[in-house]
Amino acid sequence: MSKKIEELKFSGEWDLAPAPESTNHISVKKEYQLFIGGKFVKPKKGKYFSTINPATEKKLSSIAEASKEDVDRAVKAARKAHSGVWSSTSAKERGKYIYRIARLIQEKSREFAVIESLDGGKPIRESRDVDIPIAAAHFFYYAGWADKLNYAFPNQNPSSLGVAGQIIPWNFPLMMAAWKIAPALATGNTVVLKPAETTSLTALKLAEVIQEADLPPGVVNIITGAGATGSDIVNHKDIDKIAFTGSTGVGKIIMKSIAGTAKKSTMELGGKAANIVFEDAPLDQAVEGIINGIYFNQGHVCCAGSRLFVQESIYDTLLRKLKDRMQSLIVGNPLDKNTDIGAINSKEQLGVINKYLSLGKKEGADMFQPSCDIPSKGFWCAPTLFTNVSQSHAIAKEEIFGPVLAVQTFRTIDEVITKANNTPFGLSAGVWTDKGSKVFNLTSKMRAGVVWANTYNKFDPTSPFGGYKESGHGREGGLHGLAPYLKF
Amino acid sequence: MTKRIDVLKTYKIFIDGKFPRTESGRYYTLSNNGKGIANICLSSRKDVRNAVVASRKAFGSWSGRSAYNRAQVLYRIAEMIEGRRDQFVAEIISMGGSKNAAENEVNNSIDRLIYYAGWCDKINQVFGAVNPVASSHFNFSLLEPMGVVGIIAPADYSLLGIVSAMLPALAAGNPVVVLASEQKPLCSVTLAEVLATSDVPSGVVNILTGNTSELIPHLSAHMDVNAIFYCKNNPKEINQIQLAAVDNLKRIVLSKNSDWNNSAHETPYYISDFMETKTTWHPIEQIAGSGSGY
Fold first, then answer.
1. What is the least distance, in Å, from the CA of A151 to any CA of chain B?
2. Considering its fold, how many domains does chain A have in total?
3. What is the domain count for chain B?
4. What ipTM did this prediction achieve?
5. Residue range A273-302: average pLDDT?
């Protein structure tokens, strides 16, 4: 009875003129050293690696590779700063240093944003409006906690742990550095931080900011390198705490390494979030939420809503709307302000994603990708959606960390709760419904550390973030984010 | 050659982001050791009422801002005072204080601003609660801004007094009408100039100079004022406020410690004093999922 609805055509008619962000105002050095004891020092072994722009495959800079000796130097500097200066600096003054960092990041926010997009491939709209403002806000928020810890933990007389070793991923480079450094400093710890090897630049820019803020030497040390450097940090004897954000696999290796030591840990690991749409949801908002949930930052998001559960009664309508919306996504130059989906962070990651795309098809799911122009150079993946997915498919079980959505359906609320929780992960979940009482029912049933209701991928320094089950332990953000850096 | 003549400053009051003279046209002469320093506005009942109108108008936007934004606005005031440090120090000395004490007072004022700025987005994390009611409801309590707060600043302090007295109410999200110290008003007026050039929206802070005992009855009886913060130590005035406040059940907060350099004046309880607790009930559907697994 109903007429077939015609597919929307976007070819050529909807193109926007290019709107590239200028790179004239940024400064990137040819070579970056290690930031140890307040100074930029050459690596002991003199080794450097290249960091490239994943959108053009052009080299941006050479980055020092920290060896075991360098890690030891950094830890010694951090230890000396902790016992010599930082632990005896009054909480109030400690806070004022952290406020300075926040303000300097705000002052240089555009430079940070452009470098973040150049080095990591993420759209400038995201680095400008999400990554950098949240990084600054994180420092601003935790600065205020420094002299208020007794109100967060009454009758506990909290004190710092000592030296924190912090290892962060490549998906939100500066933001992750802020999530790690800000609470550690506010609680009186000193820090040895290692950014991911594909995205070291904004962390090194942050080192410059820390120098400019005149922090006592050694309070923050930023050393660069790949997995081996990270492993040297994890295994260093004089580190009191490891804070790691990354894959569940590496997280487990770290937990094994520190077993039997006195090291404390915070693990923010992988996820495979369920994003659940009920038939009473406002569909157009839900479509935006689904898109944001999985295609935000090319899907390089541990809390990405990578499993979509749609109630059967609205399946056809929702899928049509979703595919139409995917047609209008702009894939391309990360520095263009109109770009929705930027470059995949690295060649290796693109390989992982492509492996899952062929695995998905091989296991019998149907793949959909909108037609879009993809640049010839660089690493790219069109937004992808799989239907006819079952619970046992690899694309529904494993974290892909790319713009790949696996769609499943459900009839009853009981069914969707069971399906959504049927995973070893438990980082986040999303619920879309017009009914408040259903929202709170679902939020209480989801075995996940963060649940977004009628929204997705929202972050705020005041809001604790972290996972259940194999998505890690400990929380970052909010009052709860202080505890992992304190002893009572 | 003729000697250059200094340009003297006219000290005015601060209402709705503007610097009017008092509508009454009256003044008193501030002096130190018999030497006149400045002529100060002797504000009237009408000035109080104008200030309350401006405050009420500013309430919606100030209380509606994100806590993060309010924190940054307060932090910005500290940055601005830091830039005018010499002027504040000179003013405090001119009203009769040692250089050391003056510098100490300015330092403490700046640090106190930073302290309270930090509370804006934390107060509800410490004072708010999710209440485990026995029925199937999601029930939570939050502190919300109270409304227009009238403030009687400490008498013996200049910058530190007014800053300490107005900050808790501001951090809570309230606009304020401040009666400045009668004996030491200079820094209050200069602070107004700082506020006018920082990011504080007009009407959020209104500062009146004059005879506090004349103005207290008008401020504490005003039906559009929600609370009074009294930072002096005069039993007669306290009694007056308590009686006048009854008509619209204003909340009255009295500061007990008169050493304003003391860090006892840095407490979130001053902030919660100027907030109301709101509790919200929301049903939770009880369908399915009881057997939910790992």
1. 7
2. 2
3. 1
4. 0.95
5. 98
